[in-house]
Amino acid sequence: xxxxxxxxxxxxxxxxxxxxxxxxxxxxxxxxxxxxxxxxxxxxxxxxxxxxxxxxxxxxxxxxxxxxxxxxxxxxxxxxxxxxxxxxxxxxxxxxxxxxxxxxxxxxxxxxxxxxxxxxxxxxxxxxxxxxxxxxxxxxxxxxxxxxxxxxxxxxxxxxxxxxxxxxxxxxxxxxxxxxxxxxxxxxxxxxxxxxxxxxxxxxxxxxxxxxxxxxxxxxxxxxxxxxxxxxxxxxxxxxxxxxxxxxxxxxxxxxxxxxxxxxxxxxxxxxxxxxxxxxxxxxxxxxxxxxxxxxxxxxxxxxxxxxxxxxxxxxxxxxxxxxxxxxxxxxxxxxxxxxxxxxxxxx
Length: 348
Known about the structure:
By secondary structure, this protein is an alpha+beta fold. It has 9 helices and 20 strands. It has helices at residues 44-52, 94-98, 100-104, 109-122, 138-150, 168-185, 196-202, 220-225, 230-235; strands at 4-15, 18-29, 33-37, 59-64, 67-68, 79-82, 156-160, 188-193, 205-210, 213-218, 240-248, 251-254, 257-260, 270-276, 282-284, 291-300, 305-311, 314-320, 329-333, 340-343. The protein has a 6-stranded mixed sheet with strand order 6-7-8-3-9-10, sandwiched between helices. Helix 4 crosses helix 5 (138-150). The longest helix has 18 residues, at 168-185. Its EC number is 7.6.2.11.
C-alpha cells in the first residue's frame, strides 16, 4: 500500500456563514486515481480547489508528502489543474498552448519541443503542433488541456469535471483514455464528477460526498455493492430502498416477510433501511416466489428491461433481459447475499 501524497485534516470551508465543507478528513495515495463524487453543491469542487491552493480553508490543514502546504500559493504546489472549460489560449497554436508553462520556467527550446512532441503522442495527437485551437474538436481541445497540464510533470493532476462538455460517446471514450494516461504516467489523479458511471469506470477509490461531508470512501465495487447509507445507495446506481426491522443477526423483516441475510451487528428489532439492486431480483412463476406481485410497467433500456412490480404496497424496480408483460402476476426471489442492511439516517 503506497503512502499518502496528500492529506486533508479537519478541513472546513464557509462562504458568508454557509458551510460548504464540514470537517473533512481525507488522504490520497501516490499513483492513485481518486474521484470525488456527488451532486451539485456537495463540496467536491471546493475540496479540489483547496487541494490546488485556489481556495483557503476556513479551518484545517492540507499536507503534501507530510509537509503543511495550507498557506502555499498554487504556483508553488506540485499540482496542476484541468478545468471543464479547458481555458486554452485561442491566439496560440497547439504547441504554444502546451509549452506555455515551460516557457515561463525558461526551459531550453529544444527540450520544450521534445516534451511537446512526447506529450502529444501520449494523448494520441501526434503532429498537431502547428494546429489552431479553433480547428480542434471538443475532445481534441480537452486532450490539449490535459497535455498542457501534464507536460509540467506535476506529481498530482486535479481534474474538475473535464469531460462535462463532451457528448456521451466521446465522454465514454475519454474515460478509458484518461485512465490509460494515468496508468502510463503513474501519477496521482484527483477527479471531480457528478457522473456515477464515470466514477465507477475510472477510479481506484471513490469518495461520495453530500452536503459538505464525506458519506463513504471505498473502491468502486465496495461503493456499489456495500453502500453505507441510503444516500450512497440511491446516488450510486439504481436501488430499491425499503424500511425493515433487523430481527436479529442474519434475519431481517421487510415487505411483510422475514428474509435471511448476511448482515450482523445490529440491535435486535432495530429499524433499518434495506437495499436491493434491481438486477439482483429474480422473477419467477407466481407460486414459486418469496413474494408475489404484478407487473405494472415495462420500459426497454437497450441491454435490459426495467419492470416495476407492485407487491405488498411496495413497487419493486427489477432489471432483467427477459420481459414480463404489464398485468402479469409474478413471483419475486431475493437471495441473502443480495440484501444489504443499513442503519437508518434521520432526515436523509
